[in-house]
From TrEMBL:
<dbReference type="InterPro" id="IPR036249">
    <property type="entry name" value="Thioredoxin-like_sf"/>
</dbReference>
<dbReference type="InterPro" id="IPR013766">
    <property type="entry name" value="Thioredoxin_domain"/>
</dbReference>
<dbReference type="Pfam" id="PF00085">
    <property type="entry name" value="Thioredoxin"/>
</dbReference>
<feature type="domain" description="Thioredoxin">
    <location>
        <begin position="25"/>
        <end position="168"/>
    </location>
</feature>
<protein>
    <recommendedName>
        <fullName>Thioredoxin domain-containing protein</fullName>
    </recommendedName>
</protein>
Length: 190
């Protein structure tokens, strides 16, 4: 006895094959010309707000692996100045400021979130005022370029220049803890 599929089963099989087939095809390599220079144009990334230390560590690792500086804005829910600076910074990063220099990643760290407050993140990075604009490159805190003055953070031109400066790092470090006073004592570059 031979069982023949109904037209309904045949239609479902054809639909299934049509939806799977494009994903199963092999990718054809694209020929690219050889170049000795790097493509410096990067893409900016905006991450979700940080409310747990694990999220912060994940973003640090992601930015380190992609050699993209991570810009963090440390805010608190009670800080009205933070609520005016955050949209400006979001707009600048999403509009592509810094992409020509290599790109940046950005996240807001909600300092008054319960898990962040109970961790040592604020103490580790010496966050003493809200808002604080802080950059990380290769996972290292860039203490020399920290911004705590809200008047500077509200100035779009200052923020554009600051983001571009941070984007130029591209995993090269500089300005971190190893280049300060102690770095000079131990023969590291100033």
């Amino acid at each position: 006895m031979v069982i023949r599929p109904t037209s309904r089963i045949l239609r479902a099989t054809r639909l299934l094959r049509a939806s799977i087939a494009p994903r199963c095809q092999l990718a054809i390599p694209i020929a690219r010309s050889f170049s000795a220079t790097k493509d410096w144009k990067g893409r900016n990334r905006i991450y979700d707000s940080v409310r747990r230390p694990d999220d912060f560590q994940s973003y640090l690792l992601l930015s380190s692996s992609s050699k993209t500086p991570l810009i963090t804005l440390w805010t608190a829910s009670y800080c009205s100045t933070c609520q005016t600076i955050l949209p400006l910074l979001n707009e600048l990063v999403s509009s592509g400021v810094g992409e020509d220099e290599g790109g940046v990643a950005f996240c807001e760290v909600e300092y008054d979130a319960n898990d962040i407050l109970t961790s040592d993140l604020g103490m580790r990075y010496m966050i003493t005022s809200m808002p604080t604009l802080f950059s990380f490159d290769r996972g290292e805190a860039q203490t020399q370029t920290r911004v705590t003055d809200p008047r500077k953070m509200k100035d779009p031109e200052f923020m554009r220049a600051w983001i571009r400066t941070e984007a130029r790092r591209r995993g090269t470090g500089g300005g971190g803890s190893a280049t300060g006073f102690l770095g000079g004592l131990f023969g590291l570059p100033k």
